Amino acid sequence: MFEGAIRTWGVTAQVTMVFEEMSELQKELCKQLRGGCVVDHIAEEIADVEIMLDQMKILYNIQDDVSEQRKKKVERLLRRLGMDK
Q: What is the pTM of this model?
């Protein structure tokens, strides 16, 4: 499915869409900090960003690399929080 989106709209369009979706999430989070956002909107924008990030992992063939980096960063966070025991 995600490969189909990349084939249909092309690399440039999908990379641009990542920027747009991240911007929309940023906008909703800023609204929330000002007290004017509906949490459902944040959930919708997070879903959109996650979909686009899944496409980027496929596009750059980095699924395993991202998984490994995430694991390392979570472990580092646990150490910093003193929860690595």
A: 0.90
